[in-house]
Write a structure and sequence with these properties.
The complex is a heterodimer of chains A (422) and B (339).
Chain A lengths: L3 E3 L12 E3 H31 L4 H29 L2 H21 L3 H28 L6 H29 L4 H22 L37 H14 L5 H11 L1 H5 L4 H23 L1 H20 L4 H29 L5 H30 L1 H30 L2
Antiparallel strand pairs in A: 1-2
Chain B lengths: L4 H36 L8 H4 L4 E6 L8 E6 L8 E6 L2 E4 L3 E8 L5 E8 L4 E5 L4 E7 L5 E9 L8 E9 L4 E4 L4 E4 L2 E3 L5 E7 L5 E8 L2 E8 L4 E7 L2 E5 L5 E6 L9 E6 L5 E3 L11 E4 L2 E7 L8 E7 L7 E4 L2 E7 L1
Parallel strand pairs in B: 12-17
Antiparallel strand pairs in B: 1-2, 1-26, 2-3, 4-5, 5-6, 6-7, 8-9, 9-10, 10-11, 12-13, 14-15, 15-16, 16-17, 18-19, 19-20, 20-21, 22-23, 23-24, 24-25
Classes of the chains: A mainly alpha (422), B mainly beta (339).
Chain lengths: 422, 339
């Protein structure tokens, strides 16, 4: 079952091992199917809530607020469960399963309260599954090509996020008003995702017997894994501390996508007209660049690529703060996608190499939560700044902040590449 | 991971087959059912538009299943229960005065596009207005000189600030006043500029300058009085959305949250000279910008529940808190009274 796929684009590369394991691709497919499921619903939910359930856009804003808040809270819990049980797959199945179940409730839910519950359950599932899933990806990967493995996964994941809304609108075009049809299709994709995970992805155990790791190319950290219980003190690692500090510092200067889209929409008629499609530009760049940037990270240092990715973010803010030309709006969206491609999977890959396999999922969850918390603080501060000085000036302030923060971040991150790419 | 690979692949194939077949069957059934429902719907009895054309009338969006669903329709003001005249023009939201009709339409497709069109009394196009996003509210001034549209520009789950309204005011054939969010907001005597401000639900006074609307920021909503010439909004009263000014210009009726869960409102009347607020007798939650039938009665759309959720009715209730709501028009939405 451990199909090793030969990466089509490896011919010219010398150093790379040229392999991404079948398990990583399967996990990517699981995420793709699940994202098709969730994004098709997200795309029509505002229409459904306002047009069919007859609630106002304000009510939708409230539902959307739940969407973003719940997920972060259970993420740490998911990481902890995964490490504690040493069965990250079981926790991931529970997370994906919870989201799939919520789709079926959507078929019978009516009214505001029911929709809120469904959305909450869906996000609970998402929070729960993220860290164990990333732990599985790293267990199944050659440590030397972790960046690429996460790149392949994020690329497939983003493909799902692109397909979902288009599928939903195609369905609504074919059967007008058939929101229920969208929900049925969404439920089917969610079930398929869970089925692929449950039936084909091996139960890789980071601490378990070596034999279960057969699928992943054996790496340096596969030795001496038979400790019975993980110690979370292993997370108090100085190198991990450096990474978290740098991630927090840069995260505080990463404003929410919503603000950026809003800034583009306010300055630019084009962005207003295509507001629902802005994410397509971002996701397209993310999808296209996740693998090449992951490979670059494996080759030249993950910390270096993680840091450099923030230059793309800097450029995106610069374009958003400038005058509203069509090309600068496009450029801003593509640069934002480049930033995600250079940082999201790469951060997970960086974290994995710094923590003991026994607390891998907790380590990933910690890094992701630190970033999420930093960005939340950033949104609060940026909102206030926007009020005081306006969008453009606020963006320039963040740009200057990013430039300044790059220096200590570089110092913090510098030692990490040396030790990991040996 | 105890069962052999072959069996697990077989199980996956079974799941795929069940999912694909089940979904396909459902989609086929849904499509067939929709076509059957359209075929089976009784023909909507209609009247000739030319007979109603010059009378005082109620213009609305017809939501009776069957012929003319979603089309602009009208009935005489003197006899609202008479057969409706269908116009063949489809709008999501419509508003009308004697000389002009404002139609917000959605062209549903791969990417849904939206349009706002000003029509004359014969429903011939006069002017396209700039618009993006889902139709929410439409209003004209009584003389047909000013138009206001509120649309809901929906974001995507990737955008956390995904609830954005855009309210545009335009002098027809003249100045575009742009998005009302750009107007100065005066609150408690001082100018405020909250980043999360939203403005929606405009109603015009008869002087072609003053208007009333909703402004929201920091989780609260306010009834505001606006001036187009001064590009300014002044807050009057808290917890008021989608105001509608009476023909005599003395009262606005709006919807109030009253601390209820999101998405639920009560209708209330506000006396502009005394500042006195009265809850109307309508107990159900109403999400509409009401219209005045006369100086004492407001009318509004309310969707039916359950399987008839695509159908809505227009109800009427006295604007002074007395009486009880009654159905004025069956299968109707977005009413406007042309006197």
């Amino acid at each position: 079952m451990y199909v090793t796929l030969r990466d089509a684009s490896t011919s010219g590369s010398r150093r790379s091992t040229g392999r991404v394991t079948g398990t990583v691709v399967l996990l990517g497919v699981v995420s793709m199917l699940t994202d098709i499921s969730s994004e098709s619903v997200s795309a029509v939910l505002p229409l459904y809530i306002t047009a069919v359930l007859g609630m106002s856009p304000l009510a939708y804003g409230f539902v959307d607020g739940i969407y973003n808040g719940v997920s972060a809270a259970v993420r740490m819990l998911g990481g902890w469960f995964a490490d504690r049980s040493d069965h990250p797959k079981c926790v991931a199945v529970a997370g994906y399963g919870l989201s799939a179940v919520s789709r079926f409730f959507l078929l019978v839910a009516s009214g505001f309260g029911a929709i809120s519950v469904v959305v909450t359950v869906d996000r609970l599932g998402k929070g729960l599954r993220t860290a164990p899933r990333d732990a599985l990806i790293s267990s199944a990967s050659d440590p030397a090509s972790l960046g690429r493995s996460f790149g392949v996964h994020r690329s497939l994941d983003t493909l799902g996020a692109l397909i979902g809304p288009l599928l939903a609108f195609a369905l609504l075009a074919a059967i007008p008003g058939a929101y229920r049809a969208v929900f049925v299709v969404s439920a089917a994709f969610a079930v398929l995702g869970v089925a692929v995970l449950l039936l084909l992805v091996p139960d890789l155990r980071p601490r378990g017997p070596r034999s279960t790791l057969a699928g992943g190319a054996p790496g340096a950290d596969d030795q001496s894994l038979t400790r019975s219980t993980p110690s979370w003190r292993l997370l108090l690692d100085r190198r991990l501390g450096r990474l978290l500090a740098a991630a927090a510092l840069l995260g505080v200067l990463t404003i929410g996508d919503g603000f950026l889209y809003l800034a583009l929409q306010r300055r630019d008629d084009l962005a207003t007209e295509y507001f629902p499609l802005l994410y397509v530009g971002t996701n397209f760049a993310y999808m296209a660049l996740a693998v090449p940037l992951g490979r670059l990270a494996d080759r030249y240092g993950r910390a270096a690529v993680f840091l450099t990715g923030h230059l793309a973010l800097l450029a995106a803010y610069g374009l958003a703060a400038g005058p509203g030309w069509a090309w600068s709006t496009m450029g801003c969206l593509l640069l934002l996608g480049t930033f995600y491609a250079a940082t999201d999977g790469v951060l997970a890959a960086l974290t994995v190499r710094l923590v003991d396999p026994g607390v891998r999922a907790s380590g990933i969850a910690t890094a992701q939560t630190v970033v999420a918390a930093a960005r939340f603080v950033s949104s609060l501060v940026f909102g206030l700044l926007w009020v005081q000085v306006g969008a453009a000036t606020a963006l320039w302030v963040v740009c200057v902040g990013l430039i300044v923060a790059m220096v200590p971040s570089a110092l913090l991150l510098r030692p990490l590449d040396g030790e990991t790419t040996a | 991971m105890t069962s052999p690979l072959g069996r697990r692949v077989l199980a996956l194939v079974a799941v795929v087959v069940v999912c694909v077949a089940g979904t396909g069957l459902y989609l086929w059934h849904a499509r067939a059912e929709q076509e059957a429902a359209v075929d089976a719907a009784p023909p909507v009895p209609t009247a000739s538009a030319t007979l109603i054309h010059d009378l005082p009338r109620i213009v609305f969006r017809s939501t009776l299943l069957g012929t003319g669903y979603g089309e602009v329709a009208m009935v005489p003001l003197s006899d609202p229960s008479a057969d409706r005249a269908l116009t063949g023009t489809a709008c999501e939201r419509v508003y009308a005065v004697a000389s002009r009709v404002l139609c917000l339409a959605a062209d549903r497709g791969f990417v849904t596009t939206y349009s706002a069109t000003v029509l004359d009394a014969d429903l011939s196009k006069v002017q396209d207005l700039p618009l993006s996003g889902m139709a929410s509210r439409a209003r004209l001034s009584d003389d047909g000189a000013l138009a206001a549209t509120t649309t809901f520009i929906s974001g995507h789950s990737y955008a956390s600030a995904s609830f954005v309204t855009q309210t545009l005011v335009t002098r027809l054939g003249g100045e575009a006043y742009g998005n009302l969010e750009e107007f100065t907001i005066v609150h408690d005597g001082t100018t405020v500029k909250p980043v999360d401000r939203n403005v929606w639900g405009v109603t015009f006074a008869s002087d072609d300058d003053t208007f009333y609307a909703t402004a929201a920021w920091g989780g609260k909503t306010w009834l505001v009085r606006g001036s187009l010439s001064q590009r300014r909004l002044t807050t009057l009263h808290e917890d008021a959305e989608c105001p509608s000014l009476s023909p005599d210009g003395r009262t606005v009726v709006y919807k109030k949250r009253l601390g209820r869960p999101a998405g639920q409102w009560r209708l209330a009347a506000y006396d502009l000279s005394s500042g006195k607020e009265t809850l109307l007798a309508e107990q159900r939650s109403i999400d509409d910008q009401v219209t005045w039938l006369d100086d004492a009665t407001v009318i509004y759309g309310l969707g039916r529940s359950g399987s008839e959720s695509a159908v809505s009715d227009v109800w009427a209730v006295p604007a002074d808190g007395t009486g009880s709501p009654r159905v004025l028009l069956k299968g109707a939405w977005s009413p406007a009274v042309v006197r």
